[in-house]
Amino acid sequence: MAHEVTVMTRQGCSSCVQAERDVERICAELGVPWRAEDVDSDREWQAEYGDRVPVILVDGAEHGYWKVEEDRLRAALA
């Protein structure tokens, strides 16, 4: 099954920058597409994820937040 990772991020968030770097590296190694979305660009996203950015979504479902747990993410994408 092909997976997709989304990082819910926000401008000026240093944790978000680190999460994007981690996700980019892991996804590149595993050949998994990923993207970043600005949580403040959508009111529903802001309400859902705004207090926990960065939030990592795998296949549209919340996987984790605040930081990338590399072992867990790799297991979810295996």
TrEMBL record:
One Pfam family of this chain: Glrx-like
InterPro entries: Glutaredoxin-like, Thioredoxin-like_sf
Listed name of the protein: Glutaredoxin 2
Species this chain originates from: Amycolatopsis methanolica 239
Gene3D superfamilies cross-referenced by the UniProt entry: Glutaredoxin (3.40.30.10)
